[in-house]
Amino acid sequence: MAEVAGAASTAVTGQASPRPPRPIALYLFILALVALVPAFIFSAVLLQRNNEAQERVVETLITGTSRSIVQAVERELTANITTLRVLATTPELLKRDFATFHARARAGLEGTGTYAYLLDENMLSILSTRVEYPTMPQPSADPQSGLRALETRDVVVSDLVFGRVSQRYVFNILIPIFPPEGGPLLLGMTRDGETLAATLLADKLPDGWNVALIDGTGRVIAGSEAANKTGDFFTLLDTDSLSSAPGWTEIHANGVGMVAAVQRSFITGWTLVAWAPSGIVTRPLSD
């Protein structure tokens, strides 16, 4: 009986003993979680939205700058076309006084980086301000553009060609002329492609961004240091496969993720590409 009573007493005592209190540190930890976790989540969402907003700002900046560069190129070419139209109306040219026209055109274009030349209807050269007059006739290095100018009776801007006289990659602007006497003529203005590099780089892109101006055949006319050399084919991507819609396009080149903004010139048909590694986009603007 005594053993039973002792066991019962022990059971009652065990049931009645209070649980040991939890450490106050546990409650403080739970309280901290309740207070901080929502803040962490809010901060993460805010950071993500900030990154997205920054990407939109950079995208707007790049597309706007790219379009501004194309417009600068078009303004420069429009000025060249205006000069060409003025030269096309000179009396010496219409009278076929080629020696006098050569002397005046050469003096007028000196130091501008542009040169005038004249072709007959058979695409043979008559004169060029790059050299003295007269010279032996040579076939045009770009007869297609000349024939197109005669057919359309309008100004034509060529793609990049390797000049027979200059021995450099150039682009040409041609205008047809129909003098009162004799056959039609083609007056051209030629420029080294690399002379457009200064225009491309005048509107500075953010650090890490590159730019290249590509002709209709895929050759580089001019660009930043990372672009191929003038006359080389642009190998980073196929510009025909990219849209010129506002915004940029995500691409992969040489195993590296990149973003590219594409703008096309309606005057020339050329394409401007601005590109950078994707990591550049997420870099803070203040860096």
For this entry, give a set of tags.
287 residues; alpha+beta; Beta-Lactamase; 2 domains; six-stranded antiparallel sheet; five-stranded antiparallel sheet; 40% helix; rod-shaped; disordered N terminus
Task: Characterise the protein shown here.
The chain is α+β, with helices and mostly antiparallel strands. It has 2 domains: 54-71 and 196-281, Beta-Lactamase (2-Layer Sandwich); 77-195, PAS domain (Beta-Lactamase), CATH 3.30.450. It is built from 7 helices and 11 strands. Strands 1, 2, 3, 4, 5 and 6 form a 6-stranded antiparallel beta sheet that branches. The longest helix is centred in the first third of the chain and has 65 residues, at 24-88. The protein is rod-shaped, with a radius of gyration of 36 Å.
Mind telling me which CATH architecture of the largest domain this is? 2-Layer Sandwich
Mean pLDDT: 85
Distance between the termini: 88 Å
Radius of gyration: 36 Å
Please write the string of helix (H) and strand (E) elements: HHHHEEHEEEEHEEEEEH
Major sheet characteristics = 6 strands, antiparallel
Structural class: alpha+beta
Question: What's the CATH first level of the largest domain?
Answer: Alpha Beta
Give a count of the beta strands, DSSP E runs of length 2 or more: 11
